[in-house]
Amino acid sequence: MKEFSLLFLALESTNKTSKKIEVIRQFLQDAPDEDKRWFLALFTGKRPKRSVSTKSMRQWALELTNLPEWLLAESYAAVGDLGETISLILPPVENHVERNLSEW
Predict the structure, then answer these.
(1) Confidence band of 17 (pLDDT split at 50, 70, 90)
(2) What is the CA radius of gyration of the chain?
(3) Can you spell out the DSSP letters for the chain?
(4) Residue 25 Cα to chain centre, angstroms
(5) Cβ atoms within 10 A of the Cβ of 75, count?
């Protein structure tokens, strides 16, 4: 996943088409085949159906944080994006796990 994150950051940090092509070429050369498929799916808008529901993500966030539901709802209303809201309220990561894009 680290490689995919670096790819995304590199693409966002330049407006030069030649640099973007080089970054993508390097990623496709080095990435495992499974990650290449995910890259193509995500960047062409052909991603698969969501395997985890929004309702489940909200429930897990509430369980992990012990926040009342109304506070999550108010936070979501202020932030405007559920993924960002959840990332802001979750406790810091204790165990860092390295996985490929396809594994996540």
Answers:
(1) very high
(2) 17
(3) -HHHHHHHHHHHT---HHHHHHHHHHHHHHS-HHHHHHHHHHHHT-PPPPSS-HHHHHHHHHHHHT--HHHHHHHHHHH--HHHHHHHHSPPPSS-----TTT-
(4) 21
(5) 17
Estimate the crossing angle of helix 54-65 against helix 82-89, to 10 degrees: 20
Instruction: Quote the tokens at residue 56.
Output: 């489940």
Q: Rounded mean pLDDT of 15-36?
A: 92
The CA-based angle 96-53-43, given to 5 degrees, is 70
Integer Cα distance of 29 and 87 in angstroms: 31
Judged against a pLDDT cut of 80, whether residue 102 lies above it is answered with: no
* Residues 81-100: b if buried by 16+ CB within 10 A, e if exposed: eeeebbeebeeeeeeeeeee
Cα–Cα distance, 20 to 8 (Å, whole number)? 10
